[in-house]
Design a protein that fits this description.
Layout: H1 13-23, E1 28-36, E2 39-46, E3 56-62, E4 65-66, E5 75-76, H2 77-90, E6 98-106, E7 109-117, E8 123-124, H3 125-130, H4 135-154, E9 157-158, E10 167-172, E11 175-180, E12 187-188, H5 192-205, H6 212-224, H7 229-232
Antiparallel strand pairs: 1-2, 2-3, 3-7, 4-5, 6-7, 8-10, 9-12, 10-11
Length: 236
């Protein structure tokens, strides 16, 4: 459930206090505020909130909205990303852990805030391909990527911006883990095939250092999972 409780964007006092705390917390800009979707969006890396705790990423947006047939007048983009993160958790798709999300109106303009935990030990797929890896490790990463995307698409959910830079991997020996980031364009599709077509076409064009042989191996893994029990649970 999102923290916005009315069309006017008023927040309960205790959520308002938390919003203020996160909004003004010092951190390092890892994505300088830029103009998108008629508003401004940027990402800060915040320090850990306690010993042994992970660092945090704070996505701060002002006037940054999306429109849909459900929200023709516009809705803060962070709320769509929050919904996507929660949906992915239900589908067993690894994503950053959600810490806080809320949106409010300030002087007639939406402000949105999304705070998530850092994926410790992970690097983007593009960065990973720039390094060295064994053939076994590459196969493990591609197999796990196929599993994660099958779970996502099995729930008729489309990532919407499936680039190599939004796929993060962590490899320990021959064991691989894959997580998805930047889900602000994610949405549920009526037909699973539309989500599959959109995401795989994007990844094919924006897979960065992945060679064609690895792409074909990934596709083989992905399509071999079709119809299995773990995938069909969420199918249409």
């Amino acid at each position: 459930m999102s923290a916005v409780i009315s069309a006017q964007g008023r927040l309960p006092s205790f959520i308002q206090a938390r919003f203020e705390r996160w909004w003004y917390m010092d951190g390092e800009w890892v994505e300088e505020p830029n103009q998108r979707r008629g508003g401004q969006s940027g990402v800060k890396l915040l320090p850990a909130q306690g010993r042994g705790q992970p660092r945090l990423y704070s996505k701060r947006q002002a006037g940054h909205i999306y429109r849909s047939w459900l929200h023709p007048l516009g809705r803060p983009t962070v709320l769509r990303e929050e919904e996507a993160l929660r949906a992915c958790e239900q589908l067993l798709v690894p994503v950053p852990k959600l810490v806080f999300c809320a949106a409010r109106r300030e002087q007639g303009r939406w402000q949105g805030l999304l705070v998530t935990e850092e994926l410790s030990g992970y690097v983007s797929l593009g960065q990973w391909y720039a390094g060295t890896a064994t053939a076994t490790q590459r196969r493990a990463v591609l197999q796990q990527l196929a599993v994660v995307l099958r779970r996502l698409h099995g729930g008729r959910r489309q990532h919407g911006c499936l680039y190599a830079k939004h796929i993060y991997v962590r490899v320990n020996g021959d064991h691989a883990e894959v997580a998805l980031l930047d889900l602000e364009k994610s949405r549920r599709r009526l037909l699973r095939s539309r989500a599959v077509r959109h995401d795989l076409d994007q990844l094919r064009r924006r897979r960065e250092g992945m060679p064609e042989s690895d792409w074909q191996y990934f596709l083989g893994c992905y399509h071999s999972l079709q119809g299995r029990t773990g995938d069909s649970r969420h199918a249409a």
